[in-house]
Structures are given as structure tokens and as C-alpha cells.
Amino acid sequence: MNQITNDSKFKQVIQKLDFTQQREVAALFVEHVLPLSNDERLNRVVKVVRDSNASADELASALRSAKAVTLDSHTRCGSEGKWTDQAGYFVARAATAAATPEAQSKSGGPAWQAAMSSRMAQTSVFIDSEDETPVGTEWQYDILSNYLNS
Amino acid sequence: MTEIEFLNWVRGPGFQMATIIFVAGIVIRIFEILLLGRKNNLAEAKGSEMSSGFKTILTRSVPDASTFKRSTFTIVAGYIFHIGLFVIIFFYAPHILLFKDVIGFGWPALPTPVVDAFAVITIIALLAVLVHRFNNKVLHYLTNFEDLLVWFVTIAPLVTGYIAFHRIGMTAPALLGLHILSVELLMVVFPFTKLMHAFTLFMSRWYNGAISGYRGVQS
Amino acid sequence: MSASLEKGINALKQQVDSTVASFFSSCVHCGMCAEACLFYTETGDPQRTPIYKTEPLRRIWKSEYTLFGRIGKMFGLTKAVDEKLLADWETLVYDSCTLCGRCSMVCPVGIDITLMIRKTREGLAAAGHAPEGLIGATKRAVTIGSPMGVKLPALKAQIAHVEKDTGLTIPLDVEGAEYMLLLSSMEIMNFPEFIEAVARIFKHAGVSWTISSEAFEATNSGIQIGVSDIAAELVQRIVDAAGKLKVKTVISPECGHAYMAIRWDGPNLVGKAFNFKVRHILEVLDELRKDGRLKTTGKEEQRLTYHDPCQIARRGGVIDQPRNLINMISDNFVEMPDTGKMNWCCGAGGGVSSNERADEVRLKVFQRKKDQLDEVMPDAIVSACSNCRIHLEDGLEAYHMDIPLLSLTETIAEHLAEK
User: Fold this and answer.
1) Is B181 helix (H, G, I), strand (E, B) or coil?
2) DSSP assignment of A67-99
């Protein structure tokens, strides 16, 4: 498999995966940024999504959980926004994308959505930090490559 | 004072005083509204103030279906007594004669039995409206002395007019005098109360339509 | 009289004009406004009757601007405005009203009750009786430029992210661009995909646009709290930026009250007509559609309905445009009962969602929207206001309903045809 070095290649490869594979990749992305959220519920969500034997009910419950975390962690209109906390919001959104069933999946599919949201989570932390360098996206290319090679 | 003296008084000085207070009061109230003025709207207009304003004067009389469902009693009872008052005041022969005296011309009257029926219906509607004012949570909360006073001065001419026509209880001159006095009471109270809505509702509906129409919404 | 009370009374006095006088002269206590207000219908609390919320303003009008009222005042017959009244009215005017305007549509004598509640806020705010959350938001808006404290580096980071995802450049500070886009902090923080959607649509349609680094905030906290001076200051920043960049049109994003603030209140706040146009993003998209510059492909299969954000539809005049746009990408669109200019508020705008004290009542009144949705049974709800969106999601979750919320702009972007 050729090394993925840019986003257009990244997107191409993702789109060739079937839905189940995309979901598995999405879960891997979420797992990577889980430390940026302090909501325990997301750990369970990732576990369920990664479990290939999970029933439809369990997945539905995981999705509801992820959505609940998203709502709980968003910054409400007019309140003082803390970007480090907002990272947790984007992790939850990534988890939601990973747990969304095919019919309701947004364009690009769960893997692309989870990739974008997890990037947003990292951007959020960067906004609040003193560090000038934003986190790159190589880690996502690496995860995808490793998944394909395994 | 004899009955005749009473009747002559209410028809003469009483009526004159009431009319002066009525007219002067209304003029003062309307002027003090208009004199306040309002600022020009500097935003880019999406629609016409003028035409929307006038349209709303008419359309606001027709509630939408959902509103009608929620406020059915208020709307129906309100229409009944307003229409009733209108018919009784303006289409009863003796009243038309009074108008002819004051403004110089009259118009065809409705048959008296018809007006009589309207009077009964209107009185019942007004009684129902009062009961509703106390039974309904919102109305009970909002209702104040002025609401009750206005209710009283509105129903009094109807009741006194009805019993005057049917000659119940007292002699004709006394009943008629009482009726005219009750109308004068209404006239005197009018400018100081929410009865002014009879005139200001045109302005308010216009303003509402104008403000909304400026933004491109017909209200 | 305390200094703060005096400020409050003076602020209320400044609000009285011929419209206010006409309106108060016309009220007959019919109570119909209560039945139009979701804060009454879903709580049954008569204090939340819309016209009752304006009592402080009414007393000022009566005692200062009517002959009979002034005479009555001399004899101690007119009710006064005191500290207690203003304090008691805070939860009525801020927690139980979103300035949605439904009461103004229903009043049989034509009172624009919403306008008067907005004016009443001026008095309460001047006397210091505004909710904490709003006071904080307003301070941040004035000092930082955003009620949620979003600074330029944060916006730039989001922009960088969007640029990487799309391969497009987000034009910052481009002089001579035709359109200048404003963004609400809600979008920058919670829905940055909106920026992406706009960038893609504008590239597709060949629109010349920019964002100003000096004035990118659309939300006007001054309007929400009811302090015209602050509202004016926030508008002036946008006016200055638009002038500097020489743009023809300023675009208000998917935020309800922002549109009202800049489109309708803006010039009146700063005392001068704008020399640029103001359009809501939906108006711009609809123009592009009419001009044939917006081409979409494919249709949404799911059953869609549309929630009209109050300040955009009923109070703003943007009612047909979203429907034109939805019809481009859906053959399965059904209106809510009570739709368009009579749609029901989500319950969160006008400062209510910024106010933690109002959380309970906000979720309670969501029942009204739930009832509408139960009649329609949509697969998804489309809307065009970030606050409506998050609050509808919040309400749906609280009531255990599983209906996704879609942003209209983002949905259009998803259906862009290749060019």
C-alpha cells in the first residue's frame, strides 16, 4: 500500500473502504484523541463501536451516549468559551460520527467525519496553549495505513 | 327633582357636559400619542410601511386558525358583543334620530324586534365575558379595577336601554333618563380608560403592520 | 431614589414614543397574547403573559407621558416604578422571553408587545437587573470582541483547519470583495463546519467574499441584554470594517438575533444609514439560486421539516428563501403546523440560553416544539440558526427524541454539483 501523505489521497483511500471498515477506522481516530476529553462515557462508546459483535441496540445506545456527551460539553451561547474544554466537545462529535449508522451518516462517511472532528479537538487544545505549532495530521495517515496493512 | 326635570337635565346640560368631556378627552389622548412622534427607520426597507400598516388594520380582525383554537371564547364573545353594540347604537331608530339631530343626517334603521334580540344576545355575551374574566387564569391575573369599571359602564346602557324600552319597573321618563345618564357616564369615563382602544386600535394596528411590513412580513 | 433606580427610570423614559403610547392606550386585557406565548402555554404561569412583562414601561408611560396620568401622579393615584418592581421583573423579561414576536402577531388591537419587552429590558439593564450570564457575555463582547471570548487567533486556527480540509483559501481582509461574512461565536466554537460550507458554496458560485479580522463577530450581546449604547458600539465595529474593506454587502450568518441586530436595528443604533447592504446567508444563497449560480445535485431521501428561527422569519422577513433552498435538495419536505411567520420559538434565543437560571423553564417550554414535531414526525429538522440548533438538540435529548438537526447552509453545501 502506498504511503498516504496528503488529504486528497487520505480521503480517496477512506472512501474505498466499506462502511464497517470506515467505522473501525473512525473508532481508532477517536481513541487517539480520547485523552482530550474528560467524559468517561466516551470510553464506553469507543469500546462498543470497536466491538464487531455489538448488537444494533448496543450501538444505538452508544450513539445516544455520544450525542448526550456532545450536548453536555458544548459551549453555551454567551458563556466564556474555554477551548481546552471545547476539545472534549469535538472528541464527542468524533465519537458520534463513529457510532452513527450508515443511513444517517454525513457526507464523507464516519471515518472522514471522525478524522475532521478529532483534528478539531487537537486544534482546540492548540488554541488555548502557548505552543505555536499546531498538531499535524500525519498520525491519521499512519493509523489508516496501519489499519490497511493489518 | 321630578322625573321630567331629571330627563330634561340629562338631555340638556348633562349631555352637553358629557360630550365636551368625551370629545376633549379623546382629542387630548390622541394628540398626546401623536405628539411623541417616532424616529425614522434608517435600515434598508424590504417592504412598504404604508400599505402594510393599512392592511394590518383589516387583517388583524381575522385571527389565524391556531390562535382561534386557543382563544375561541375571547374571540367569539368579543365579536358578539362588539357587533351587538354596533348594531344597537347605530341601527336603532331612536338612536338614529339622535344622530340626525347632532350631525345633520340619518340612515335606515333595523326593525326594533331585531335590535331587541341583539340587545339580549349582547347582554348575555357581556355577562359571559365577565364570568370568563374570573374563571380564566390569565384574565383573572390581569383584571383590575379599570376592567371592571369599563365593563360596568358598557353594560349599563344596554340594560337600562332594554328596561326603558320594555318599561320595566319605573315610569317611562325615569327609565329613559336613567338610560341617557348611563350613556353619559360611559362617555365621561371613555377617554380615561381602555375604551380609547376604539380609536387607538387603528393607530396600533397600523404601527404594527408598518413595523413588520418594513421588514417584509405582513402582520 | 437610588442612582441605579434613577438610571433605570431614565432609560425607560427614553423608550417612550408614539408607538409605545398608542400600544399601551389600546390594551384591553383580553389575554390573547398569553395563548400565543410558549412561556405561558407550557407553564400555565399567568405572570408570563406578554403584556404583563411590560408593566415597568407602562407605568412610566402612564405617569410621565399622559396628561391624566401626570395629574393622577400628583394625587398619588398612579403606580410608580420602584426598585422592587424592576428586580421582580428580571425573570419575566429575561428568563421568560426570547423576543420571538408571536404575541405581536396575535394581539387583536395590534400591539407590538415584543418591541415593548425589548424596550423594557433597557430599563432593567440600566438599573442593573440583567442576568449574570448576559452581563458577562456583554462585557466580553465589548472588551474582547466576542461574547464567548473568541479571539482572532482562535478564528484563524479554525480557518486553517477549514482550509486544510477543503483545499480552499478563506479570504481574510480582502479589500474590494463583494461580500463580508460575519460569524457568530457559536459557529466558530461549536459548528466550524459552517465556515467550510460557506467557503465551498462561494467557490462553487464564484462569489467574491472576505472575513474581516477586525470585526468578525455577528452576535450582538447589547441587543440581548437591552443596552442600546453597547449594541451600537458593536454595530459600529462592523460598519468600520465594512467601510475599510469597501464591501458591498455584509452577510449575517446562521444566527437569529444577529440578523435582527445588524439588519434592522443596526443603522438605527448608530444613527446613520449604512452604505452597504445587509443580507442573511439564506438570502444570499437564494439570490445565487435565482441567478443560476448555485447548482445542486441529488436529493435528501429523509422526511424533512423546517424550524423557522424567529428573528429570521417572523421578525426578519426571511421566510420564502429557506423553502426555495430546501426544495432544491428535497422532494420530501413537510411544513410544521403553524409555520412560517407563525412558527413557534425554540425557546432559547434572545439571551435565554446564555442564562443558566433559565435552564429549567427553557427545557420545559420545549414541549411546544415537541408537540409540533409529534404532528409532523420528520426524519430530520432543518434550521438556520446555531442557537436554535443546539437548543433543539438539547430539548430533543431531554425528551428522548432522536431527530437530527441539519443546518440549511451545510446541507446545501453537501449537495453542491461539480462544476
Assistant:
1) helix
2) HHHHHHHSPPTTS---HHHHHHHHHHHHHHHHH
Task: Note the pLDDT of residue C164.
Answer: 86
Instruction: Calculate ∠ Cα B34-B38-B40, nearest 5°.
Output: 140
Number of helices and strands in chain C (H, E): 22, 7
* Tens digit of each residue's pLDDT (9 = 90 or more) over C26-55: 999 999 999 999 999 999 999 999 999 999
Tens digit of each residue's pLDDT (9 = 90 or more) over C345-382: 999 999 999 899 999 999 999 999 999 999 999 999 99
Q: Residues of B with CB below 8 A from C36's CB? A: 67, 70
Closest by Cα among C310, C315, C149, C135 to C230: C135
- C234 touches C220 (CB < 8 A): yes
Cβ distance A75 to A89 under 8 Å?
A: yes
Chain A interface, best mutation among C151, C189, C396, C410, by max A CB count within 10 A: C189
* Residue with the three cell numbers 428563501: C321
Is C317 close to B216, i.e. CB distance below 8 A? yes
- C partners (3+ CB pairs within 8 A) are A, B
Kindly list the distances between the CA atom of residue C142 and the CA atoms of C39, C154, C184, in Å, as whole numbers in the listed order: 30, 17, 15
C23 and B35: CB-CB below 8 Å? no
As a whole-number percent, the residues of chain A with pLDDT over 90 amount to 47
**Residue of C208, C374, C351 lying closest to C293 (CA atoms):** C208
Query: What is the CA angle B56-B61-B62, rounded to 5?
Result: 100
Q: Are C394 and A71 an interchain contact pair (Cβ–Cβ within 8 Å)?
A: yes
Q: What are phi and psi of C406, to 5 degrees?
A: -120, 140
Q: What is the ipTM of this complex?
A: 0.95
Residues of chain B with pLDDT under 50: none
Answer for the pair C185, C150: CB distance below 8 angstroms, yes or no.
Answer: yes
> Is B78 at the interface with chain C, CB within 8 A?
yes
pLDDT at residue A135 tops 80: no
Smallest Cβ distance to C104: which of B63, B144, B219?
B219
Q: What length is written for chain B? A: 219
90-119 of B, contacting C, C-beta below 8 A: none
Residues β-bridged to residue C209: C179
Query: Chain C closest CA to A128's CA: distance in Å?
Result: 8
Asked if C262 contacts C218 with a C-beta cutoff of 8 angstroms, the reply is: yes
Please name the residue that has the C-alpha cell 424550524.
Answer: C307
CA distance C184 to chain A (A): 9
Residues 6 or more apart from C6 whose CB is under 8 A from it? none
Report the gap between the CA of B93 and the closest CA in chain C (Å).
30
- Is there a contact between C31 and B28 if contact means CB atoms under 8 Å apart? no
pLDDT greater than 90 at residue A87: yes
- With contacts defined as CB-CB under 8 Å, which chain A residues touch C160? 123, 134
Q: Are C257 and C350 in contact (CB under 8 A)?
A: yes
Helix extents (H) in chain B:
3-9, 15-34, 49-59, 65-70, 72-91, 93-103, 112-135, 137-142, 145-166, 172-189, 197-214
Task: Judge: A86–C354 Cβ closer than 8 Å, yes or no.
Answer: no
Q: Which segments of chain C have a pLDDT < 50?
A: none
